[in-house]
Amino acid sequence: MDRYLLIVSTLLAAVGAVLGMMSVHHGIRSRWTVVWMVASFGCQLGFLALRGEARGACPLRDLGEILAFLAWSLTLFYFVVGPPYRLSLLGVFTAPVVVVFQSVALWPGVLASMPQRVAGGNPWGETHAAMSVLSYGALALAGVAGVMFLVLDHQLKEHHLKSGLFRNLPPVRELLESMVRLLWLGTALLTVGIVAGFIMPHTGGYGHFIAAVITWIGYCLLLGVKMVRGMTGRRFSLAAVGMFLISLTVFAFV
Q1: What phi and psi values does residue 40 have, to the nearest 5 degrees?
Q2: Which one of 32, 108, 114, 141 is most buried, by most CB atoms within 10 A?
Q3: Where are the domains of the chain?
Q4: Nearest residue to 148 (alpha-carbon basis) of 130, 123, 127, 165
């Protein structure tokens, strides 16, 4: 049942992405993308609830569950910070990322078909896993906003000022401000996850924890440079997108 919910969630997000792109192409601001994403979000909640019940813990025990949790986190932050962006257009950029994450999670062998119940779970370990993956939702959305900025920058340079996409994109300043807020939020959540990781008992390898610390340092440096020296919008956007793509290597240690 849980796998079917994730499949339906993925299909709903895909429909929202396609219909949203068609609306933007015709220069129409449609709210239907939001509706499809709300339905997809509901299926994500159902999937995580069933997996959590089966595990008896936060469902972050295999790569499939982590990717599904990450997709849920990304969708959650999309609803939280969406209004400043023009919600429907942000969904057009967010939905394909959700589809990719959940499609990989559904790949044979990635998501455990018979989840084993967790015995003797540690609350600090649960906090470390949940807050770390939750932070990636905010960092992923910052990357999505970075892509939006780069698209807007390209439209301006190519003088495509009458295209449907350009007319629906939010102002440059709003995108940059939202990116900064999302990066601070993601870094703060990741900080909580890392602190919990220090406290939790370690019985296995340290690879994923070290990778998380390196990711945290990278984002702190990015925000520090932005605050102290300043960065052009294009460089900041490229850095936000690049940092997130590089940070995904942390899942190689799962």
Answers
A1: -65, -40
A2: 141
A3: 1-111, 123-254
A4: 165
Separation CA 150–CA 86 (nearest Å): 17
Per-residue pLDDT of the chain (254 residues; tens, 9 = 90+): 789 999 999 999 999 888 877 876 666 666 677 888 899 999 999 999 999 888 888 888 889 999 999 999 999 998 887 655 555 577 778 899 999 999 999 999 899 888 888 776 678 888 888 898 999 999 999 999 898 888 888 777 776 655 555 555 667 777 888 889 999 999 999 999 999 988 887 666 677 778 888 999 999 999 999 999 889 989 999 999 999 998 888 776 55
d(CA 65, CA 52): 10
Question: Closest Cα partner for 24 from 73, 76, 89?
Answer: 89
Using an 8 Å Cβ cutoff, are 101 and 70 in contact?
A: yes
Distant-in-sequence, close-in-space partners of 90: CB < 8 Å, separation ≥ 6: 78, 82, 144, 145, 148
